[in-house]
Design goal:
12 helices, 62% helix, mainly alpha, two-stranded antiparallel ribbon
Length: 331
């Protein structure tokens, strides 16, 4: 069955390339990039299969064992737009394959100077492919944890990342609800790390796909946890929902920024660095300033608008970023 799927996938890739992509490339005078375009068709189809699989697996679970009733279906459709942009737009892959020759050139220059950059691949001679894949996954997840901590630590960065947390109806598409600038920072960061430790292009595509699939599960509106042991081995929907909880997951006691459960795939980093919260329960999600509140001095603070449509959300993210910069300069 798997071979049948692979044969069908290869046929569809070849057909799309031959009948649609190749003629368009020649018409635009881009014939020299045909090889890259052929690979691009593969990534596009892989992303389409990924989106279809998520819908077929997670959407029924959301209907059968939801955490909360979906009160804003338009917001879920908007998250779906983010998913199509992120997973069919190939942006993260494009960053990786653009940086690959650049970093190869830099590494070559360093070798001429007698400097040999560290490469994890060199330490894994004789490793089984699955073992090397898992090692790369763990190493990249460690650095992803600290990237996530940064998003919650610095006010300017939180101004962008808070868009991701502003979904009150978290669902299987919410993982991709990010500001494009925030996505760019993360994609460049992860691509540089992957290239620096020797991840091959084919491995990187698989690493990204596996990671994205697990993160979609984490954000799904499903009442699932992995038990006392499993919760400490892999980030579950309940563990990650606590990270999205209003006033819990993105704040620390006495501080507007901070929070808990920053692990992207593995909770071990939260355990090691003291940011884990395994409390039971299913919290409401969102950002505190989305709700009107009364300050200690008795004055009222209106609810902040995070926008409803894609472009409005992107624009308001830039507004928050500029406000964060102004606030820092004023201080």
């Amino acid at each position: 069955m798997i071979q049948h799927f692979l044969d069908w996938f290869a046929f569809l890739q070849g057909w799309l390339f031959e009948h649609m992509v190749e003629p368009a490339m020649f018409a635009m005078g881009l014939g020299e990039y045909l090889e890259d375009a052929f690979e691009g068709v593969e990534w596009f189809l892989a992303g389409a299969c990924e989106v279809a699989a998520l819908y077929l697996v997670l959407r029924p679970l959301e209907a059968v064992i939801p955490v909360q009733e979906m009160t804003d279906r338009a917001a879920r459709w908007n998250d779906f737009i983010y998913t199509l942009i992120h997973r069919l737009g190939l942006f993260g892959m494009a960053v990786f394959f653009t940086l690959d020759p650049v970093l190869d050139h830099v590494a070559g220059l360093l070798r001429l100077e007698g400097v040999h950059p560290f490469n994890l691949e060199g330490l894994m001679t004789g490793f089984h492919p699955l073992a090397s894949f898992l090692l790369y996954l763990v190493v990249l997840d460690f650095f992803d944890y600290w990237f996530h901590r940064g998003q919650h630590r610095f006010r300017w960065w939180w101004a962008l990342h808070s868009l991701h947390h502003s979904q009150l109806n978290m669902n299987l598409w919410s993982d991709d609800r990010n500001h494009l600038l925030d996505d760019l920072l993360r994609d460049v960061y992860m691509a540089v790390l992957a290239l620096a430790i020797g991840v091959a292009p084919s491995q990187y595509v698989l690493l990204v796909s596996v990671s994205r699939g697990l993160q979609s599960l984490q954000h799904a509106n499903v009442r699932i946890h992995f038990g006392r042991l499993g919760e400490r081995l892999l980030v579950s929907p309940r563990f990650h929902r606590t990270h999205h909880a209003v006033g819990v997951g993105h704040e620390s006691p006495g501080h507007e920024l901070g929070g808990c459960n920053f692990g992207v795939l593995l909770p071990v980093w939260d355990l090691v660095f003291g940011t884990a919260n395994f409390a039971a329960g299913w919290h409401g999600t969102g950002v505190r300033d989305q709700f009107a509140r009364t300050n200690p001095d008795g004055s009222s603070r209106p609810a902040r608008d995070y926008g409803r449509g894609f472009w409005r959300q992107q624009w308001l993210g830039l507004v928050r970023l500029m406000e964060a910069g102004s606030r820092r300069n004023a201080a």
